[in-house]
DNA sequence: TGTTAGCACTCCCGCATTGAGAGTGCTAAC
DNA sequence: GTTAGCACTCTCAATGCGGGAGTGCTAACA
């Protein structure tokens, strides 16, 4: 266990380093944080802390900088809660009242705000939607050449799609098709409905409805597309350019790899697959080589009590952890409000998810 | 008019500079391009070309580099046609056969390919869709709590949206509402249908349908959302990180501004509003200060003979113009094929636009 | 035993200097 | 009109040289 004084020295060093990005020397520390002891004592404490793995020295006559382990101890034991200013809160609160009901727009804006308020990179994943079970498929004959396909799920989602009919289709065919699809698929969890299952269904159907070959495949296609688009989460990256102002990202080659990562949606999704609540991975704790001196702080948000997405900030390990966490907590709240406000039934239809 | 020899010297310098990114000296030029004259003669020609504004000298004892005007002359008069390799063509051809029918996916992939094949940044705008006139609005009573809104246009688009009904609505109300909306809006070009017009309609309607207050606003809302999402083009930026390999983008501050631009969708859209065919804006020809040493080469693609989008490459003025143009031409063809293949009616429903 | 002042030592960083190299313009000869 | 030669200019990388910041150690002190 660390002595009280060691804790305050470590905390002071991290606070100082986060602000200045320069190695912290004993003199600067004594001057700006009144620790009540001399520089020599601080030096002794620093030497101890270094030996214990909390600090590092870039070279022999430089000040100390925190190690990953030092940051870890800081976020676990030393960090104090940070309060957002009112103007920061207001900025985030706007999200709840965004006019556009499109989820895309909300999340894109949110990721940009996240970056703006943290000066790092904002990352947000959209939640998966297909969490329920399919309850029914209906086909409605709209006009000579148009039909409407409706897919219902047990958690209240309705997907609808207009289909163009081949000339020779009759109403009774359409109805029997809908009944057949419902019969075979109703009750299944969405994840189970795959291309393979649809293919089987397809070949079964072909035996009975030879003349409607084309139409059947269109229904299956529409269903498939919906499943695909809903099963896939998207990632919104906002304000990536902001980290270019940070001193640790002055090396173009390094930045290049990082920005390449931001375009790897699949990789990001994996990276942002997180436990509920606030999660922090510091430096080496990140597996990817590109991120060995980056920290990701993330939080999850929940829509309709079920499907969850992640909001995260990626920045240098020298990060203002307390502030970032406050921003994330507030943003999480805003997103949950934005997506489950009073008119949620409407919203659900209009939103991409 | 430039002498034949001056033209070959200029062309050789540009070719050389595009490859090496280093100022081109007379000796290097004589060695690598057999122009059949001595370095002294080349020096004289270079001095002339500089005086005429085609070349510049970073400092007195450096080689020459092309000016914006030099590049302009090159693309207008000297450039030769470039042929894509088969593997490059294959890469682009994949786009036509992308399984996913989502336009988003096609364009995002295309922008990435564009970057990959050029080593610069790929920019693509999705075409605007709302080019026709509204012909009818239909409301269909699906179940006790659900109605379907259908919006038809004269160029064959159909938008559909499921609406949740307030408890007390009756079928005849729904029908009369649809008739009223159609009566007031049919025949109008899509651009004319704005929030303001809908607001007027809304207040008129309230007088007659006091009890359906809520429902009416939902229909208007759905219509509005559709108009918004369709009237707005999106921009897909791909492979931005690739230009970080180019020597002109080693300055982080410069890169920062450029990357900030890539997140300004509105600005990009404006920038990519282009004449049909290949357009090139070189260096200072671009208005934005960030882009004073960048070139944008763009081409337009057309879907359904009407709505057009832009594909473009943004890179340093020292750009492999011939190659970029070939890539753009080929890509344009692929996109047009991808979006207007045989099953285009289906596609139109499924695609975002 | 813990704390502090003092001091020698180390290392980075910015600055000026220097020499090699590349390229030019000019001149004179062809 | 073309070319060889040469003096000149300028950049760039390498080198060397304090100044400054910060440390660890030692010895004195409470």
Strand order of the largest sheet of chain A: 7-3-10-9-8
> How are helices and strands ordered from N to C of chain A?
HHHEEHHHEEEEHHHEHHEEEHH
CATH domain topology of the largest domain in chain A: Beta-Lactamase
Shape designation of chain A: elongated
Binned strand content of chain A: 15-25%
Major sheet of chain A, described briefly? Answer: 5 strands, antiparallel
Write a compact overview of the structure shown:
The structure is a homodimer of 353-residue chains. Chain A is built from 13 helices and 10 strands.
Fold topology:
Two copies of one chain form a homodimer.
Chain A lengths: L3 H17 L5 H7 L6 H13 L3 E2 L8 E2 L1 H11 L7 H8 L9 H16 L2 E5 L8 E8 L4 E8 L4 E7 L6 H15 L9 H14 L4 H19 L3 E4 L13 H11 L2 H7 L7 E4 L11 E10 L3 E10 L4 H19 L4 H7 L3
Antiparallel strand pairs in A: 1-2, 3-7, 3-10, 4-5, 5-6, 8-9, 9-10
Helix pairs in contact in A: 1-3, 1-4, 2-3, 5-12, 6-12, 8-9
The structure holds a DNA duplex (30 and 30 nucleotides).
Describe this protein's structure.
- 2 copies of one chain form a homodimer.
- By secondary structure, chain A is of the alpha+beta class.
- Chain A folds into 3 domains: 4-78, Orthogonal Bundle (Arc Repressor Mutant, subunit A); 86-128 and 233-350, 2-Layer Sandwich (Beta-Lactamase), CATH 3.30.450.40; 134-231, Enolase-like, domain 1 (2-Layer Sandwich), CATH 3.30.390.
- The first copy, chain A, contains 13 helices and 10 strands.
- In chain A, the strands form 3 sheets. Chain A has a 5-stranded antiparallel beta sheet with strand order 7-3-10-9-8, sandwiched between helices. The first copy, chain A, has a 3-stranded antiparallel beta sheet with strand order 4-5-6, covered by helices on one side. Chain A has a two-stranded antiparallel sheet with strand order 1-2.
- In chain A, helix 5 (86-93) runs parallel beside helix 12 (321-339).
- The longest helix of chain A is centred in the middle third of the chain and has 19 residues, at 213-231.
- Residues 341-353 of chain A have low confidence and may be disordered.
- Chain A binds chain B through residues 100-102, 112, 138, 140, 142, 146, 148, 150, 158, 160-164, 218, 221-222, 225, 228-229, 238-241, 244-245, 249-250, 252-253, 255-257, 259-260, 262-263, 345-346, 349-350, and chain B through 100-102, 112, 140, 142, 146, 148, 150, 158, 160-164, 218, 221-222, 225, 228-229, 238-241, 244-245, 249-250, 252-253, 255-257, 259-260, 262-263, 345-346, 349-350.
- The structure holds a DNA duplex (30 and 30 nucleotides).
């Amino acid at each position: 266990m660390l002595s009280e004084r060691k804790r305050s020295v470590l905390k002071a060093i991290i606070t100082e380093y986060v602000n200045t990005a320069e190695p912290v020397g004993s003199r600067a520390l004594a001057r700006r944080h009144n620790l009540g002891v001399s520089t020599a004592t601080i030096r002794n404490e620093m030497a101890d802390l270094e030996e214990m793995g909390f600090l590092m020295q870039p070279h022999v006559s430089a000040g100390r900088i925190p190690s990953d382990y030092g940051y870890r101890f800081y976020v676990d034991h030393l960090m104090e809660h940070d309060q957002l200013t009112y103007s920061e809160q207001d900025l985030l609160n706007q999200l709840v009242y965004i006019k556009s009901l499109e989820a895309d727009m909300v999340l894109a804006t949110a990721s940009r705000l996240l970056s703006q308020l943290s000066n790092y990179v904002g990352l947000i994943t959209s939640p998966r939607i297909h969490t329920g079970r399919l309850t029914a498929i209906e086909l409605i004959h709209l006009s000579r050449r148009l039909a409407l396909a409706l897919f219902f799920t047990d958690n209240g989602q309705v997907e609808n799609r207009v289909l163009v009919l081949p000339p020779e289709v009759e109403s009774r065919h359409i109805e029997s098709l809908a009944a057949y699809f419902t019969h075979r698929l109703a009750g299944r969890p969405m994840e189970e409905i795959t291309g393979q299952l649809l293919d089987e269904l397809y070949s079964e159907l072909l035996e009975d409805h030879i003349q409607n070959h084309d139409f059947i495949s269109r229904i299956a296609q529409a269903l498939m597309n919906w499943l695909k688009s809903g099963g896939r989460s998207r990632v919104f990256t906002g304000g990536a350019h902001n980290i270019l102002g940070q001193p640790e990202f002055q090396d173009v080659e390094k930045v290049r790899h990082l920005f390449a990562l931001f375009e790897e949606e699949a990789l990001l999704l994996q990276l942002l697959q997180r436990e509920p609540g606030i999660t922090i991975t510091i430096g080496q704790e990140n597996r990817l080589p590109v991120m060995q001196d980056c920290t990701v702080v993330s939080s999850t948000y929940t829509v309709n009590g079920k499907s969850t997405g992640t909001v995260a900030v990626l920045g240098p390990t020298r990060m203002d952890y307390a502030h970032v966490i406050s921003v994330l907590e507030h943003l999480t709240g805003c997103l949950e409000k934005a997506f489950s406000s009073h008119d949620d039934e409407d919203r659900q239809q209009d939103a991409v998810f």
